[in-house]
From TrEMBL:
<dbReference type="InterPro" id="IPR027623">
    <property type="entry name" value="AmmeMemoSam_A"/>
</dbReference>
<dbReference type="InterPro" id="IPR002733">
    <property type="entry name" value="AMMECR1_domain"/>
</dbReference>
<dbReference type="InterPro" id="IPR027485">
    <property type="entry name" value="AMMECR1_N"/>
</dbReference>
<dbReference type="InterPro" id="IPR023473">
    <property type="entry name" value="AMMECR1"/>
</dbReference>
<feature type="domain" description="AMMECR1">
    <location>
        <begin position="12"/>
        <end position="196"/>
    </location>
</feature>
<dbReference type="Pfam" id="PF01871">
    <property type="entry name" value="AMMECR1"/>
</dbReference>
<dbReference type="InterPro" id="IPR036071">
    <property type="entry name" value="AMMECR1_dom_sf"/>
</dbReference>
<protein>
    <recommendedName>
        <fullName>AMMECR1 domain-containing protein</fullName>
    </recommendedName>
</protein>
Amino acid sequence: MSAISFQNLNKGELTQLLDVARDAIRGHFSDDLPQPPQLDLYSKKLLQPGACFVTLTVNGQLQGCLGTTVAHSPLVMEVHNKARASAYQDRRFMPLVEEQLDDLMVEVSVLSQPEDLAVDSEQALVDYLDNNKVGVILSDNHRQALFLPQVWEQLPNPKDFIRQLKLKAGWNSVYWSPSMKVQVFKVSSISGKYYY
């Protein structure tokens, strides 16, 4: 079965995915055991394998962001699992607590298939990113870091964007290697306030 293309999702389908993410978080705060999505309620399109990230912010500050670049399971399930993981398993943050829910924003990003970008230097990557505000994955020597395209809102300068991405991977800001692998991708995303 082929993976769903991020471009094939309409606003209604993205809204359904946002609701799945909200429900996954809501289930943690209810007395009942959290329930996975009931798959027979969703279209065939949303049941195709899909890669996604779920990003949580509280008062504009990042509170969790986890996902995958490879489509393993139905998109609906991926969104559900990544929403729960972002809320409670992102090791960079304390787990989400009830007091934060009033100020919680949830964003679901469905990824395109990452494509290799042939660049022979960091400057070549900067030049490419000057005209292409895409998501970027850098990997080299068992280290990897990813920024979604939305990060351009905080880091509009390509040099700063790359520098911060390298720091995220654990390299120093001037690190570059001839074996550095660069992949780029696009997303289709939707965000909204969490509600009870």
